[in-house]
Amino acid sequence: MTLRFIAKDPDTGSNASPTVWVDETDDGLLFQGWKAGEETLAECLKTGSIPDYEAVIKIPARMIGIVREACDVAERARLRRAAGELP
After folding, report:
1. Is the dihedral of CA 59, 61, 65, 67 positive or negative?
2. What is the pLDDT of residue 28?
3. What are phi and psi of 69, to 5 degrees?
4. Distance from C-alpha of 4 to C-alpha of 6, rounded to nearest angstrom
5. Contacts from 78-85 at CB under 8 Å and sequence distance 24+?
6. What is the pLDDT of residues 27-62, one digit of tens each?
7. Torsion angle of the four alpha carbons 29, 1, 51, 54, in this order, in degrees rounded to the nearest 10
């Protein structure tokens, strides 16, 4: 697995900031964020279960541009891979 760091939350002053990466192996997105609280989890569970090996996380709205950047990076790589330009 090779991770491409995109960015940390620019408004958080610690190393434990919400963070976004792109997995350059499969173009997936990885997020570090705040664990969802009980009320949020209860709301999420209305649409289905959350397996023990999954988690609901939250990143701040101010990171929307960062998430878009990560999506663009992943999408460009996926398209290049499909065109045979990348392994």
Report:
1. positive
2. 96
3. -60, -45
4. 6
5. 78/27, 81/27
6. 999 999 999 999 999 999 999 999 999 999 999 999
7. -50
